[in-house]
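DM from R.C. (forwarded with permission)

"hey, sorry to bug you on a friday — could you get me a structure for this? deadline for the figure draft is monday and I only need the backbone to look sensible"
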Amino acid sequence: MTAAPEGEKAGPEETGMPSEAGEVRSDVGSTAPEDRKDEPSVETLRAEIEAILFSLGESVDIAVIADAVGLSRAETEKVLKDMQQRYEAADRGIRLIRLEDRYQLSTKKELYPTLIKVVRQPQKTTLTDVLMETLSIVAYRQPVTRTEIEKIRGVKCDHAINKLVEYNLIQEVGRLDAPGRPILFGTTEEFLRHFGTDSVDDLPAMNPVKVEDFKAEAEEEANVRLGV
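My reply, with the result:
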C-alpha cells in the first residue's frame, strides 16, 4: 500500500478504511459500470447492496445503489427483486421493502411479539375514523390543501391534519400558487410502510360513493360537537 505524501492526510481509499458510517459519499457514482475491472458475482452484488442498506439504516434511492455497485438501474432492480424473494424465506428475520423508488431493510411484522421483549415497545399509532377519512382524502387527492380536505369532509380538519403530520403519515409537499399560498399536503414514506404498499399508485381505486359517506359522517360529527 503506497503511503500518502508527507503533509497530506491519507483518505479512506488510501488507508483501506471505509468512509464515516452512515455518510453517503459525495463521489458515489464516479465509477461507471464499464470502469469496474472485475465482474462481480451475484452473491457479491447482494452482499454489497445489503451492506449499503444496513449501514445507512434508512431508505436508499435505487439510483444511489446502482451508482455505488456500478450497475445500471435495470440491473440493480433485478438484483433487489431477487433479494426481496430471498428475504421472504421463513428463516429470515428481516425483509426488503420498496418505497416508491427507494429500498429499505425492515424487520418482519410477524416478529413484533419477540422484538418487544428486548427493545422498548414503540408507541402504536392510533388512527380513528376521522383520521382515516382525512388520510384517505390526502392519499387519493394529493397534493391537496386543507381547504380542499375540509370541503370534501364538510367540517374543520385542523386537529386531524395536525395529528397525521405528528404521526408522520402526511407532510407539506409544496405551496399552491394562489392567494395566501396555502400548504399542499401529501403522504410520506411512513404512510407506505404503515399500510404495506410499495407506491400510492398501488392503492385500490376509491369508490365515489365513499366520498359521499365521508361527507355524511363529517356532518354527523359536526352535529355531535354542536349538540344537535
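R.C.: lifesaver. Residues 3 and 14 are 8 Å apart (CA to CA).
me: no worries. The beta strands are 60-61, 94-99, 102-107, 144-145, 170-175, 183-187.
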